UniProtKB/TrEMBL annotation:
Its EC number is 3.4.21.83. GO terms for biological process: proteolysis. Belongs to the peptidase S9A family. It comes from Aminobacter aminovorans. It comes from the Bacteria. The lineage of its organism: Bacteria, Pseudomonadati, Pseudomonadota, Alphaproteobacteria, Hyphomicrobiales. Pfam families: Peptidase_S9, Peptidase_S9_N. Gene3D superfamilies: alpha/beta hydrolase, Prolyl oligopeptidase, N-terminal domain. Residues 481-697 form the Peptidase S9 prolyl oligopeptidase catalytic domain. This is Oligopeptidase B. The keyword Hydrolase applies. One of its GO terms (molecular function) is serine-type endopeptidase activity.
Length: 699
């Protein structure tokens, strides 16, 4: 296609070249922009002010450049922001969930950026604010709350916050009655704490300097955090850990996993000094999750070739793998996603034929029933319960046209009670919109699901612009759920589409396996095939498709830009993981060793090296006519470090042909998730959508 001139002629920042060579497996690569990686990156994550002056100057020049190119969209961005804000109920509140004498929930106050947490007496009474996020965020350029956990005696609250965006969370303990903070303060944690049964202390994970949750500690209330007892240390840098408790308050569970192997260790919550007991030793490729079940544990596992998972039971007295017994057999093509146990029931969330399902299992009889839903494409979520001995579970439902609905469901009587429907204050008429599910043929014959929404009045003759979103990694599925933000595009004539590409689990575990490591290229060709199918079906045209993805989805954006630049009018890559090979070769970075099962280990394996270098976006930038590209990043992001998109932008400008610009926008006060406030985040979305509208000719 001949690309129209959209952006003003403004000189882009010129990035110094300081070549660094690296030779592995007899192959030498040269990186001219490696200097953008700060040598003191660990310090920068904690204190951005220590960033090298040359790097800071370059990043600020990038921000100046993108601001100048997008200056003509200022009023559009204001309008988009106002629209998206108008669809949010500013004083929204969750439906409180019962836990004994109280019910706990969260809410926003009008104009508030952060959540407030509250409780009310279960039998009715006044609301009590137990944590006000807006108050805690005062004076911080960035502030994000982490986990919140009230004690079983309802007297105290563990809460966590990150005020840098680096995801090093500080834990604090609050006396709920008085609102006073205790002297117990623990830094550098994973973001949550779990009470022991007596509420005299709590367990947490501590992050090492490389941002790995490598140790579980126990902190006794009123003691010095420096003297906290080490409960368990994971010495393999390829594994992450988490610690949590069961709703019955009987067990503390330490879960250890990478992307294909898992392991559990557990001990009674009544005995915080007990040594954690191994359930089943890690075996490469063996995955299992534990869920409480009274005198048994429910075990969700892929053991014995159960690729799409099955459910076993194990006695709590000895839950070793040799004692596991089958409860729900493996069924190929039915992927069991999660399990929630109750005293008399067990509930599972599964996906079959690309759609989620909730199945209720009665423990006494083994009888099962399915909760049914009418729409063509939709999203489900299990909210579970604070309580274990109850007949009531909670779930959410939405579709791309239907606002989120929250239900309480009586598992015994099968009565469904609607508790809340998401309010859209500015108005939302479901009949104005159409949602569809298409199947795009991939080059190898597989059919790739596409979920989409468009306005009923949008002409489907190839003239509509389209935003095509994709992810396709880690087995994550992008749900076909309600998204008020995308309506600002849809109401302007866009088709908003989600490509459910390989690398996710949309069509079972095999769908994930066919989009990782040696087969990773399927992720990219599936996305390109989705674009082609939307054009073939007259939903849009290639010169009107804007592709969007974030993190690993940002890597997808870089790959498809290299492979099929002619298929897209623009690319939006948020916190893009584009320098895959360099990162996977650097085992000092926070996520690298745990990522090797997903991408391969190019340090140890020449084959993995060659696989990654063949698609890594940064390594495959070429002299082609790229569409306009917007890369977005956060300075303190520990997941996708800022220098990846910074280097990518520089190399794109150096090597590309054509006149399309490369914009790099970096938030100097945030990390991987972008701005922390609900409204400040909308400003970022408005910027991205303004870019999409601009390159699609609808600004």
């Amino acid at each position: 296609m001949t690309r129209p001139k959209i952006f003003a002629d403004i000189a882009a920042p010129v990035t110094d070249k300081r070549p660094v060579s690296d030779t592995r497996h007899g192959i030498t690569r040269v990186d001219e922009y490696a200097w953008l990686r700060a040598d003191n990156w660990q310090e920068v994550f904690r204190d951005p002010s220590v960033l090298d002056a040359d790097i800071r100057s370059h990043l600020e020049a990038e921000n100046t450049y993108q601001a100048e190119l997008m200056a003509d969209t200022v009023e559009l961005r204001k309008a988009l922001f106002a629209e998206m804000k108008g669809r949010i109920k500013e004083d929204d509140s969750s439906v409180p969930m019962k836990d004994g004498p109280f019910a706990y929930g969260s809410s926003f106050k009008k104009g508030g950026e952060q959540l407030r947490y509250f409780r009310i007496p279960s039998e009715g009474g006044p609301e009590e604010i137990i944590l006000d996020g807006d108050k805690e965020a005062e004076g911080h350029a960035y502030f994000r709350l982490g986990g919140i956990d009230h004690s079983s005696d309802h007297k105290r609250l563990i809460w966590a916050f990150d005020d840098k965006g680096s995801e090093f969370y500080t834990l604090r303990v609050r006396d709920i009655g008085s609102g006073a903070e205790l002297d117990d303060v623990v830094g550098d944690t994973g973001g949550s704490g779990t009470w022991d049964a007596a509420n005299t202390g709590f367990f947490y994970t501590r992050l090492d300097p490389n941002h790995r949750p490598s140790k579980v500690f126990y902190h006794g209330l009123g003691t010095d955090a420096a003297a906290d007892r080490l409960v368990y240390e994971e010495t393999d840098p390829g594994f992450f850990m988490n610690v949590g408790g069961t709703r019955s308050n009987e067990w503390i569970m330490i879960s250890i996993s990478d992307h294909e192997t898992s392991e559990y260790r557990l001990f009674p919550a009544t005995d915080p000094l007990a040594a954690p007991k191994l359930v089943a030793a890690r075996e490469i490729g063996l995955q299992y999750d534990l869920e409480e079940g009274g005198d048994i544990f429910f075990v969700l596992t892929n053991a014995d070739g159960a690729k799409d998972f099955k459910i076993m039971t194990a006695p709590v007295s000895d839950p070793a793998r040799s004692n596991w017994k089958e409860l729900v057999a493996h069924e190929p093509g039915r992927l069991i996603l999660s399990v929630v146990g109750f005293k008399d029931f067990m509930v599972r969330l599964e996906r079959k034929e690309g759609l989620p399902r909730i199945v209720v299992h009665e423990r006494a009889t083994g009888a099962e029933h399915l909760i049914s839903f009418p729409e063509e494409a939709f999203s489900l979520g299990l909210s579970g319960s604070y309580e274990y001995d109850t007949d009531t579970m909670r779930f959410s439902y939405s579709s791309m046209t239907t606002p989120s609905q929250l239900f309480d469901y009586n598992m015994r009587t099968r009565e469904r009670t609607l508790l809340k429907t998401q309010e859209v204050p500015s108005g939302h008429n479901i009949e104005d919109y159409v949602t569809r599910r298409l199947m795009a043929p991939a080059p190898d014959g597989e059919l790739v699901p596409i979920s989409l929404i468009h306005h009923r009045d949008t002409p489907l003759d190839g003239t509509a612009p389209c935003l095509l979103y994709g992810y396709g990694s880690y087995g994550m599925t992008i749900p076909a759920s309600f998204n008020t933000n995308c309506l600002s595009l849809v109401d302007r004539g866009f088709v908003y589409a989600i490509a459910h590409i390989r690398g996710g689990k949309d069509k079972g575990y095999a769908w994930y396996e066919d989009g990782k490591r040696a087969t990773k290229v399927n992720t990219f060709t599936d996305f390109i095939a989705s674009a082609h199918h939307l054009v073939a079906e007259r939903y849009t045209a290639h010169e009107r498709i804007v592709a969007q993805g974030g993190s690993a989805g940002g890597m997808l954006m870089g790959a498809v830009a290299n492979m099929a630049p002619e298929a897209f009018a623009g690319i939006i890559a948020e916190v893009p993981f584009v320098d895959v090979l360099t990162t996977m070769l650097d085992d000092t970075l926070p996520l690298t060793p745990p990522e090797w099962p997903e991408w391969g280990n190019p340090i140890a394996s020449e084959a993995d090296y060659k696989t990654i270098v063949a698609y890594s976006p940064y390594d495959n930038v070429a002299e082609v006519d790229y569409p306009p590209i917007l890369a977005v990043a956060g300075l303190t992001d520990p997941r996708v470090t800022y220098w990846e998109p910074a280097k990518w932008a520089a190399r794109l400008r150096e090597r590309k042909s054509g006149n399309s610009p490369v914009l790099f926008k970096i938030n100097m006060d945030s990390g991987h998730a972008g701005a922390s406030g609900r409204f400040s985040r909308l400003e970022e979305v408005a910027f991205n959508y303004a870019f999409a509208l601009k390159v699609a000719g609808r600004a």
